[in-house]
Amino acid sequence: MLEVRIKAVWMVRAAATAAAIAVTGIQPATAQTYTYAYYQTANKSPTASLTIPVKASVNTSCGFQQVINENFNVGNIDEAGWTRSTSFVPECTTPWRIAISSTNGGLLNNGAGTPVAGYLNKAPYTVSLKVKSDAGDVNASCAAADLHSSAGTNCTFKGTASMTNGLRVGRSYQLIGSSIQVAAPAYTGPGVLISGTYQDTLTVTVSPST
Amino acid sequence: MKKIALIAMTAAAVIATPAMAQDVTGTINITGSVAKKCFVLNGSAVSSTFGTTVALGELAKSDGTLRASSDLSSAFATAGGSALDAQVVCTSATPSVSVTAEPLANTVTADTGYDNSIDYRADVTLTTVAGDVTVNDPSSNIAATTTNLTSRLTGTGTNVKVRTSNWTADGVLVAGSYTGKITVVIAPGA
To answer: Which is more confidently placed, A178 or A23?
Structure first.
């Protein structure tokens, strides 16, 4: 009889393990599942029950329908103002965050060297975000200088997106109308921009939010 | 039962692992340019020219010959005042400079012993990051005097000054109006 009990216990463990493994591989799981193990001994109840609560969830996902990959040539930045825009479609199943970093913190003329007084090798511009979400539009605007790694905390969407960093947006899945806009008026000073080519790179990241 | 509970908790912990980490979902490259150019700054105002008309008044002494050169040089600077100084800025590093002085001439014919043309030398001083550079052009030479600066014009304050020297004439100056011109061209260079 003792042997039977030992086997019965073994059966229970096996069933529980199988259920636990099954849980990790099934998405989404629902409600509670009951797993039963049986054993029989003389003069005892013929059944025994074991209840295993199962919890599961669907992983949050966050990204864009299509990766942004833009190259904007904005012409002579000291002669005419410029505006460029790119649209994107978020696919985030929970509240999320978006952040942008600027390589140079402005349009930089790498070949100009260190400018002397009165001259500049970097031109400012503005980065504006408009994001559609179930909770409504989220708008924010920052100077590119505030998106550089060395900048302070003036900008709500500076840096790399994480659970806690970046501009927080409500759930937004395949909503049309989100965009990133970059713009600047013709640069007229103070200071004179040194001739040459100016360049910057913006990197956009997203993350589910806490 | 303890083992069962432990296994169940392990499963739950795996499921509760936070969502995917951040991904780079966009790159925007922006390029722009600034062309080589030179311009005159007057405060915040930008223009392409500077200059003034300098009225020297009487050019001759009581004996009809030209006033002393130093006297005329001083009169030129005084009459021209601050309009003879300018702030010129170039986006390029090594601008070129051309100076052309034209004699003060009178349209009245000058007979022997008289003169209807006054020569002088234009002295244009440019302040660069590396120091002052002076370009001298005599009006007796029709061709311009040119030079290429080896360093950038200073970006603040006055950096171009136009002055004169070496005023000369032969004989008695014929009566009438005398007009001349100094032209300074500062270009972006190569």
So the answer is: A178
